[in-house]
Prior knowledge:
This protein is mainly alpha-helical. It has five helices and two strands; from the N terminus they run αββαααα. The chain has a two-stranded antiparallel sheet with strand order 1-2. The chain is rod-shaped, with a radius of gyration of 63 Å. It starts with 13 loop residues before the first helix and ends in a 5-residue tail after the last helix.
Amino acid sequence: xxxxxxxxxxxxxxxxxxxxxxxxxxxxxxxxxxxxxxxxxxxxxxxxxxxxxxxxxxxxxxxxxxxxxxxxxxxxxxxxxxxxxxxxxxxxxxxxxxxxxxxxxxxxxxxxxxxxxxxxxxxxxxxxxxxxxxxxxxxxxxxxxxxxxxxxxxxxxxxxxxxxxxxxxxxxxxxxxxxxxxxxxxxxxxxxxxxxxxxxxxxxxxxxxxxxxxxxxxxxxxxxxxxxxxx
Length: 231
């Protein structure tokens, strides 16, 4: 029967842990040696124990292998161009933005009462509190707008009353000026009427005198002479 698999986790027993370390360290060094021989690979192996002891293996010079590793990793890191780095950055930012957009869309749907069946009691309570806070802010802003509009209308009313009073005073002033300008014309009309009446009376007397007979006219003159005159 084969040995069963063991769980890969830290061994708590110090003795068992030390025994396992020695066995697996030797097996790892053996595998590294076999890999270097069979595949002609350049290998450098470094192991530190819990007590600080170092174990190493290299089929060449271990320092040269480490320098080669450093150079290879440096070339790999510098192989990324600026455009590639920018592309990676923008991809990450785009992913974050898509997640934020999705979250905001879900939140908006929840605020209008859609998709709430998938929410638990705690999430529903949070949504309810958010809606109550939003309604409070909306009512406060609405009240402020109503007060501001009322104040503006009152100011406008006062302004219109002042303009109306100013227009009434202008109209009254114009009427007084018209009356003053018509007064001389009215006097002339009265004089003209008086003249017409005087002229009519005189014409009537002349017509009457022209229509009398000579005898009547002489008798009228004699009667005028006989009538006593009062001093």
